[in-house]
Amino acid sequence: MLDKNIVKDILPYKKTLILVILSNIIQATMIVSISYIIAYLADKLLFDELGHSAATPFLVLLFFFFIVKAVLNYINRLKMEEISLKVQSRLRYELLKAMAQDFKAAEKKPEGQWLALVTKGVDKLDTYLTGFLPQLGILLTFPAVLLICAFISDWISGLIFFVTAPLIPFFMVLIGKIADKENKKQWHLFQKLTVFMTDLLPGLLVVKAYNQTQRQIEQMRENGAKFSTATLKVLKIAFLSAFMLEFIATISIAVIAVNIGLRLLYGQAEFLPVFFCLLIAPQFYQPFRQFGAAFHDAMNGITA
Predict the structure, then answer these.
(1) How many domains does the chain have?
(2) By CB distance 3.0 to 4.6 Å, which of 10, 39, 90, 287 could disulfide with 275?
(3) What's the CATH number where 236 sits?
(4) What's the maximum distance between 2 C-alpha atoms anywhere in the chain?
(5) Residue 143, Cβ neighbours under 10 Å: how many?
(6) How many CB atoms lie within 10 A of CB 122?
(7) Containing structural domain, residue 46
């Protein structure tokens, strides 16, 4: 889903992107640390009768890890927003420059198409750069770190993670093929509607003089209805995709929970390692869920 033109635009900021990826790895280790501390405290409080005073340092450390993770996440978001603004500004400048340098070629396209491209088209890149790319970075780092820790802690839970994780991208690709077609159709209709409005507004007096007002109103209503229908189809696919991702992730977590519960019941596992795996399970699937939502934003940006 990486567009080579957009990748070329963000290459000047590769140092910032590397820092963001490193920050993601640190955040993943924070999740591991937080989950392990919670599992350790639960194990000691339940089975070893750990005193409240002895648990205080762990709680302070837990709070510190939460703060570090939140700060890193905030900095990442600011950096990606900064890159997005710079890329959008440069693209708008290049579009306007191209129109000014080759005005005759620019005139071959309707004004509405240029207007849609310079405004809405460039704006849609924001969701790609601030939504899709950060989620892609998280998807490539968080699950990998958590999967390694799960295998080290409890290989059976790690194996369930490993087997169920590919199901989410598989269904996402299947739905994405349908969504891509509908996104292109929606963008085409949006351009058509923009061209119609841009051509109509300067000629309102002529339309009224030739008594064509009602005809133009009907045409406007027809174009608007087509665009609304296309938008609803895109939203329907987005909701279907979100449902599938949530369903698969929920079932996967349930399988892990049942497996851990049965093994604990029959004394086939120790509490600390399996409880740790249970705590990181939602965090393991969360990037896949968020990536699914960002995937549709990315398609809008690339189509535009």
Answers:
(1) 1
(2) 39
(3) 1.20.1560.10
(4) 90
(5) 22
(6) 19
(7) 4-303
